[in-house]
Fold:
Amino acid sequence: MLTRRQLLRVSAAGSVVATRAPHLLAAQYDLIIKGGRVLDPSQRVDRVADVAIRAGKIAAIQPNIPPYTAAEIIDASGKLVTPGLIDIHAHIADRELTPAHCLSTGVTSLVDAGSRGAENVDKLLKTAQNAPNRVRILLNISGRGLADGATELLDIEKANVPAARRAVERSRDWIVGIKARLSRSAAGEHDLEAVRRARQVADPLKIPIMVHVGDTASPLPEILALLRRGDIVTHMYAPAPHGMLDDNGRVLPQVLEARHRGILFDFGNGRTAHWTWDVAERAMQQGFLPDTISSDITGAGLTDQVLNLPNVMSKFLLLGMPVDQVIARVTSNAAQAIPEYKSYGTLRIGAAADVAVFELKEGNFEFADNYGNKRTGRRKLFPYAVVMGGKKVA
Structure:
C-alpha cells in the first residue's frame, strides 16, 4: 500500500508523480484500490477501474481516479477486485478455525452453520460478537450441535423445539436460521422428523432452514417436499444413495421443481462424503449450477481439501464456470441467501466497503473431491488484499 506522501515524492527522473498544490492535498478519499479488474456481479460490472472508499463506504468506481485524492492506495494492477466474500457455511466453533483467519482469505461475512445448538450456543455467540468480520449463526436443531460428535440427531429428542425457539428469540440479531444435518450417520431414520422440528422453530420466526443432505435414510424428494422458499440444501453434489441424480445421471425432476419453488442449493465443500467431481460435472452439464459456493471449513479443513474459500472457488474454475459466475456465488448470490446479509456482497456506491483483491495465477494446481480423487486445474485464486469497512485488514 502506498501513502500519499510516497505518491508525492519526485521520481528518479525528476518528474512529479502527484502535485503538491495545497488545494489538492486534502484527501477526497480514505483509500483507492487502483487499476484492478473490478468484478461486481450485483451490478454486472466487469472492467478495469479504480474503487474509491470514503468513511467506510464505496464512494466511486471509475477509471483513473487521481492518486493524490486518497490518503492510501492499494495497487491492484493485474488483480481481481471483488466485493468481500460471503461464506454461508463454515464452522468457527472449532477452536483451530478463527473468524480472523477467514477474513485474511477475503471472507468479510460468514455463517457458522450448525456447530452449536440451544444448550451451548452462548460461547459461539461471543465469538461472533467479537469477530473482526461479520459472523452470524445457524442454530443446530439438536441441543448441543456438534459438541457431542457428529451423531446429534440419532436421539431425536435432542431436537427440542421450545428450547431452540427461545435461543433464537434471545439472540435474533445473531442467530439467522436453523441447521439440520440429515445424513444417516447424523440422524439415522429421523431425517424427516428433524426437518419437521426445524420447521416448527423457523416458521414462526420467519427464518430459513439449511439441511445437510447426502446418504440420508429418506430419498431426497421427500426431504425437499418439506422445504419452503428461501430454505437451503447444502452438499448438493453428494453422491448416491439419495443424491440429486437418478440412476441415469439425470437431475431429478423434484430437484428442478424445488429450485423453481425458491429452494436454494449450496455447494458446501467439506471433507467427508459431500461431493464428487462426477456428480458435480453431470449436474453442471445439465445446467444445474450451485446458487452459492461455500467452504464448510473446519480446523481440519485448513490443511485438507478445503484450505480456504478461494481454493474452493478455484475448483469451479477447473469445472469450467466463468470467473464472474464463481464470484457471484460467493457475493451477490450469497447475500440474497442470508437475509441479514442482503446489503453486502456488492460494490454499489454507498455500500459497506468490504472488498477482496485476488491474484488469479496460472499454473498447475491440484484439487481434490471428498473421495480423494485429484484433478489438476490451470488457474487458482490467491488472496492479495482485504478491506473490511473501509480499512485494509490483510
About this structure: Residues 155 and 187 are 8 Å apart (CA to CA).
